[in-house]
Amino acid sequence: MVLTEIAPIAGLIIALVFFLWLDLHFFARGREADFKEAAVWSVGWLVLSLLVAVVVLFLDSGTSAIEYTTVYLIERSLSLDNLFVFIILFTYFGVPEERRARLLFWGIVAALVMRAVFILVGVELIEQFHFVIYLLGVALLFLAYRIFKGVSENVDPEKNLMVRLVRRIYPVTDDFREGHWFSQEDGKRYVTPLFLCLVAIVFADIAFAIDSIPAAFAITDDAFLIWMGNVFALLGLRALFVLVEGLIARFRYLDETIAVVLAVVGVKLLIEDLVVIGPLASLAIIAFCFAAGIAASLYADSRDSDAQRKREERREEKEAGGGADSEKEKE
């Protein structure tokens, strides 16, 4: 592990727990978060994430700080895909706005635990069997191909194995029972739709972890840096959800951008024994990919808006011309 000093690591973990509590306590205690509050929290999480990079820089090296930042950037971008799935699940289960933030919080906590397990297992496998690196590279290229072709993950709750299993074991209430996970009625334990949605979110998180963790290993094999990059990419997800829920459709080339990034890191894994691509070069390439994808999306959105405005202007001119012709005929 790169960061070998116990005290700084313990300090980061304590700070992490504190901010998790702060997020849960102030961001959404059973109420709907507003846009301004979500924006403040999003900026706060971004600043905190960058401060962690500074801490890594002083405790270890500039290389480690760049590796952490690159992992954070990759995981942050991939987390946007999570938001599409969350929107689908919230809509399917009919989760009220004021219940969504709490649901996201516990889904993120579960995701952090599972990703820690995946990272530790991945590090051990790579140390014992170097060829696993090449398998991860091939897996990333295959995933990039699927995303580029529009083959999305199956998020249909009706086909989710664990959701179906829970429904077989427990009856489901017909409402949310004031936000409770379970309800005791007539001597029977019921689960609420809120709990079913949490189950679906947790297992969607597992699928995303399987996709995203290999991409992090293309940047560094340090488990702590990978986990911290994942942690701070996920922690701002609740606030980010409020910000982009209505805007995410504007970024039409998000999937294509993610596919390109995954392909880049997949190739990096496959050729790492032949060509050395440094952390700074990796960060620059990935940042350029995302900047290009965002710019292309905004340009396409602006072009479509201009075209729509021109069509409306022509229609108004045509209607105005038709009205003038009618007046002449009357005269």
In brief, what are we looking at here?
By secondary structure, this protein is mostly helical. It contains 11 helices and 2 strands, in the order ααααααββααααα. α5 (132-148) packs across α7 (193-217).
List descriptors:
331 residues; mainly alpha; two-stranded antiparallel sheet; 11 helices; 2% strand
The total tally of domains equals 1
Mean pLDDT: 74
Q: Strands of the biggest beta sheet: in what spatial order?
A: 1-2
Sheet/helix structural class? mainly alpha
Distance between the termini: 90 Å
Topology (SSEs and partners):
Elements: H1 6-27, H2 35-59, H3 62-93, H4 97-128, H5 132-148, H6 161-169, E1 182-185, E2 188-191, H7 193-217, H8 223-235, H9 237-244, H10 254-271, H11 279-330
Kindly describe this structure.
Helices cover 76% and strands 2% of the residues. With 331 residues, it is mainly alpha-helical. The protein has one domain (6-154, 204-330). It has a two-stranded antiparallel sheet. Helix 6 (161-169) packs antiparallel against helix 7.
